[in-house]
Amino acid sequence: MTVTWEELGWERVAGGVGRCRLPGWDCTAGLVVGSGTALLIDAGSSLGEGARLRAQAESLAGHRVTHLALTHPHFDHVFGAAAFAGAEVYGPVGMDALFDQHQAREALRADAVRNGLDPALADEAVDALPRPRHHVSGEWTLDLGGGRQVLLANVGPGHTGHDLVVLVPGSPEVVFCGDLVEESGEPQAGPDAVPSHWPAALDRLLDLGGEDALYVPGHGAVVDAAFVRRQRDALAARFGVSR
Fold first, then answer.
1. CA 87 distance to own-chain centroid
2. What gap in Å lies between CA 77 and CA 136, rounded to an integer?
3. Alpha-carbon distance 17 to 19, whole Å?
4. Is the omega angle on the peptide bond into residue 172 within 30 degrees of 0, that is, cis?
5. Of 3, 5, 4, 14, which Cα lies nearest the Cα of 150?
6. b/e for 89-126, b at 16 or more Cβ within 10 A?
7. Which of 3, 1, 38, 45 is closest to 17 using CA atoms?
8. Which residues are CB-neighbours of 47 under 8 A, at least 6 positions away?
9. Per-residue pLDDT tens for 25-84?
């Protein structure tokens, strides 16, 4: 029996493209279904959450998740990554080196616990955290078969030092923004943010998607180009960045 996106609590955004809003931190995970392939975008905040995401994604796709794209190195987006054994993992260049640094991994764990993740789950996730095999420094076209291609683009730094977005061509085009864009609250700028570059990252994101695309934030409801532009201007004003 075929399961629908809605039955699993997912929002269908375009043909073969959807997303879900995870409990706890309202973090978005995305799914793009290809021919015998499936790309998941971000992996949730724990191994258990990652395993649930994988099961749901594979029910929707009708086959296993073959690719995983991590938009940026924050616990609520990457701590479920080890649940996707066998998938090809993509991340912005530099994420792999960051995950190799003991101090950075400890900071990632501490941030998760500070935000309410159980320490045992944080330990489990950080110990198993896989390094992306594929490092995106500019743009990377990923062929998912059946005529479906997606574009992985490193448009950061901004929200972090390593920010990746995923463009899914079609009608409409869909852009998974990671936390470069947030709708359910003010964009968060932690110690690893690069505020002086963030507005420019959003300019590049808008150039990729264009006026008619749907933009999927890292947290919150799907938005349009006008929303992204307003957030770009608000960030520029907040951080004193001129064009």
1. 16
2. 17
3. 7
4. yes
5. 14
6. bbbbbbbbebbeeeeebebbbebbeeeebeeebbebbb
7. 38
8. 79, 80, 82, 83, 121, 124, 125, 128
9. 999 999 999 999 999 999 999 999 999 999 999 999 999 999 999 999 999 999 999 999
Count of other CB atoms within 10 angstroms of residue 59: 14
Pairing of strands 139-143, 149-154: antiparallel
Question: Which tokens in the block code for residue 107?
Answer: 């900071």
Give the pLDDT band (50/70/90) at residue 2.
confident
Q: What are the pLDDT digits (tens) for 145-181?
A: 999 999 999 999 999 999 999 999 999 999 999 999 9
Residue 86, token pair as written in the block: 């066998």
Place of tokens 């075929």: 2
- SS3 letters across the chain: CCCCCHHHCCEEEECCEEEEECCCCCEEEEEEECCCCEEEECCCCCHHHHHHHHHHHHHHHCCCCCEEECCCCCHHHHCCHHHCCCCEEEEECCHHHHHHCHHHHHHHHHHHHHCCCCHHHHHHHHHHCCCCCEEECCEEEEECCCCCEEEEEECCCCCCCCCEEEEECCCCCEEECHHHCECCCCCCCCCCCCCCCHHHHHHHHHHHHCCCCEEECCECCCECHHHHHHHHHHHHHHHCCCC
Question: What predicted TM-score, i.e. pTM, was given to this entire model?
Answer: 0.97
Query: Where does residue 144 rank: exposed (0-12), middle (13-18), buried (19+ CB within 10 A)?
Result: buried
CB 216 within 8 A of CB 19: yes
* Residue 214, both tokens: 């749907």
